[in-house]
């Protein structure tokens, strides 16, 4: 009896897990390629921040004040933010949405944490929420230098994992470039083959006309 219940529980758990992964996968696929470059938000100090202004790849962390996992990772983000690196680091919260505090309450609460280096942006209108729609907190987003979404990763990432995303981004870009070059080379070869074939047909047609003239 106990064994049957255990097997039933495992089946239900697997179905739930598969459903969750499917939902997250769809969300990730939907967000890829979205453009953040026209989005301008204010941070907790009231300063404006425009994505893409620095023309550098950017790591974006979506989080919430009620999320224990998010809070446990803030110290690493704070440390990463002050390090010298070739990418930007920003975090985003959604005041008044998805259970988050109001903007006023969030600012007051955040000041008590005393993190000096983390850039926390307030998306009060939910502009990024519409583009990415994170289903899990925290969720990480990797933007390229033009502020287009390249990766969406649900769940916590440590500092080392975040750093590892950006060499991978460069590799992806190189692979994309190589694929484009390969496609162009194939297209050029195809064009050449078509031109050669056309020339051969024209030559044959010319030879045929000459032979007819000779017989006449």
UniProtKB/TrEMBL annotation:
Disordered as annotated region, ranges: 195-216
Pfam families linked: Redoxin
Signal peptide as annotated in the record: 1-31
InterPro entries: Redoxin (IPR013740), Thioredoxin-like_sf (IPR036249), Thioredoxin_domain (IPR013766), Thioredoxin_ResA/DsbE_sf (IPR050553)
MF-aspect GO terms: oxidoreductase activity
Keywords: Signal
Keyword Signal assigned: yes
Keyword Signal: yes
Entry-linked PROSITE patterns: PROKAR_LIPOPROTEIN, THIOREDOXIN_2
Record-annotated Thioredoxin domain positions: 30-171
PANTHER family, alphabetized: THIOL:DISULFIDE INTERCHANGE PROTEIN DSBE, THIOL:DISULFIDE INTERCHANGE PROTEIN TLPA
Protein name as annotated: Redoxin family protein
